[in-house]
Amino acid sequence: MDVEHVIGAPHPRLRPFVTRYGGYRMRTEPGVHRGLPSRSLTLVVTLDGTVDLPQGRFATLCGGLHDEAVLITHDGFQHGIQCSLTPLGARAFFGLPAAELSGTSVGLDALDAPAAELRERVQTATTWTDRFAALDLVLGRLLRPVEQQVEVAWAWQRLAEGVPVGEIAAEVGWSRQHLTSRFAAEFGLTPKVVARVMRFERANRMLRGQRRPTLTEVAAACGYTDQAHFNRDWRALCGATPTEWIAAELPFVQGSETEQGAELSP
């Protein structure tokens, strides 16, 4: 097994819309990889091969927010860059709300993005730093002015801070039902589901870290009521229990949440 992960930071002007670049090069046994739910949309540019999903095969793609694992079939070799987009990035780069991509993945060419140019620039670059710089260049050209919906953006931020949905609705002066409707229209998922995904994401990041805590420690730190609750939620979002996921997937993603050993873009 040969696994390489390299983390890069996007150009400062892109950071409200892209949180990070993740370069990967993995040679493993053929199989199926789980793309896990997170608070980010996913933009992928392959350097070799394609990303093979139930919707089709893609050399470049953007996937929206989702609340279950995306199954990715591979032949044992995966090589490319994954960009984590904020929901606002969907409007900034593609001129549409994140809700329009929720639960699905589409090729970048379907979003009127210069998919072929982007892939060619990334393939031509010889270092991860240069590849990340190519992403900065092309994504920077796509940027357009966006107007953020203040209340919905506030709700997203408060969810990330662990504030209950009912309390957030009171803060913005809306009923819980109205907040849910407006939130889902922008992001494609309800506040309750996004809060669940954010909690799952935090647990997943803890397990990927350099020091892996016990499952009991993770459950307690992330606010699950008990180990059974942790297992049920993880299975619903991941398609496997934490123990099953650790055995099948953790060797391929270990350390991918850190910047150790990465060539960081300027």
Instruction: Give the tally of β-strands.
Output: 10
Radius of gyration: 18 Å
Morphology? globular
Low-confidence stretches: 258-266
Gap between N and C termini: 31 Å
CATH class of the largest domain reads: Mainly Beta
State which percent range the strand residues make up: 15-25%
* Number of spatially distinct domains: 2
- Tally of helical segments: 10
What is the helix content? Answer: 40-55%
| Average pLDDT rating | 92
The CATH architecture of the largest domain:
Sandwich
Folded structure, characterized:
With 266 residues, the chain is of the alpha+beta class. The protein has two domains: 2-146, Jelly Rolls (Sandwich), CATH 2.60.120; 150-252, Orthogonal Bundle (Arc Repressor Mutant, subunit A), CATH 1.10.10. 42% of the residues lie in helices and 21% in strands. It is built from ten helices and ten strands. It has helices spanning 87-94, 115-124, 128-142, 150-160, 165-172, 176-187, 191-208, 215-221, 227-238, 242-253, and strands spanning 2-8, 18-27, 31-35, 41-48, 51-53, 56-58, 60-63, 70-74, 77-85, 105-107. The chain has a six-stranded antiparallel sheet with strand order 1-2-9-4-7-10. The protein has a two-stranded antiparallel ribbon with strand order 3-8. Helix 2 packs antiparallel against helix 3 (128-142), helix 4 packs antiparallel against helix 5 (165-172) and helix 4 packs across helix 7. It is globular, with a radius of gyration of 18 Å. Mean pLDDT is 92; it is low at 258-266.
